[in-house]
Amino acid sequence: MRDRNAPVGVFDSGIGGLTVAREIMRQTPGERIVYFGDTARLPYGSKSQETILRYSRQIVRFLNTQRVKAIVVACNTASAYALDELEKETDIPMIGVIRPGARTAAASSANGRIGVIGTEGTIASGIYTRYIEAIDPKIKITGKACPLFVPLVEEGLWQDPVTDEIARRYLGELIDIGIDTLILGCTHYPLIRSTVGKIMGDKVTLVNPAYETARELKALLKERDMENDEKPGILDDRYRFYVSDAAEKFKRFANSIIKYGILSARAVNIEEY
After folding, report:
1. Rounded to 5, what percent of the chain is helix, strand, coil?
2. What's CA 248's distance to the chain center, in Å?
3. Above pLDDT 90, what percent of the chain?
4. In sequence order, which ranges of the chain are alpha helices (DSSP H)?
5. Per-residue pLDDT reduced to its tens digit, 205-229
6. Are residues 112 and 204 in the same domain?
7. Are 62 and 268 in contact (CB under 8 A)?
């Protein structure tokens, strides 16, 4: 049995998974976190399933060296293409970001029309459609790839006329078909939630899988009696961040969205794992 006071591992293709880490910090403040962002090899959204699975296996092996007690795959593309295989290969409890969001969306929709926005890889995988149809086959799911959202977020253009215009173009067809629920199917997208919400209007419920995933992690840790019961020391390093490249850039971005003081971000050679 793994140490209940061990950290939770969280990984993403880069910085988007920080929205998931932020929600975990909010909802389970007693937990330690080891975060890995694959900044050298992003984006995952345009890569093949074989490549994403290879990358994900390397990251899981790295997180194992950190003795994590659970792993959150904080990347929609990796959740779509790698999670099922990863779960077969390790005894560490794992949670992806797709299932929690799919369940919430299915429960939220009144008219049975749900939209999903995400990377090309996530949308092409059709995984949200499969999960939601398994819950309720009468629900109609429409996916829309929004590849420009990620670079806009990473450039810090969260509230900018350029982002507004791109969002209108992407979201127009989802408005036209009358969806009442929209899944933010990429972990970058909560950072432009206000822009998406403004364009979609008050009658459309936005589902944030980052929030739902943190809730599921909290429930899993409680169910398995794995909640951290150790009080932090004064100098306890509760949150550790690792990347595969550009540690200083990552640190600056992380500090702009996580207000818990990220003191350092270390680069590791992930190809060694």
Report:
1. 45, 15, 35
2. 21
3. 84
4. 18-27, 49-65, 76-81, 83-89, 98-108, 120-125, 127-135, 149-154, 161-176, 193-200, 209-223, 247-257
5. 999 999 999 999 999 999 999 999 9
6. yes
7. yes
Q: Which residues are catalytic?
A: 75, 186
Contacts of 252-256 spanning 24+ positions with Cβ under 8 A: 253/15, 253/18, 253/154, 253/156, 254/15, 254/18, 256/156
Q: pTM (2 decimals)?
A: 0.93
We report the CATH number of the domain holding residue 237 as 3.40.50.1860
Could you report the per-residue pLDDT of 42-58, keeping only the tens digit for each? 888 889 999 999 999 99
69 & 107 share domain: no
* Residue that is last in its domain, among 185, 209, 233: 209
**Is residue 242 within 8 Å of residue 36, measured between CB atoms?**
yes
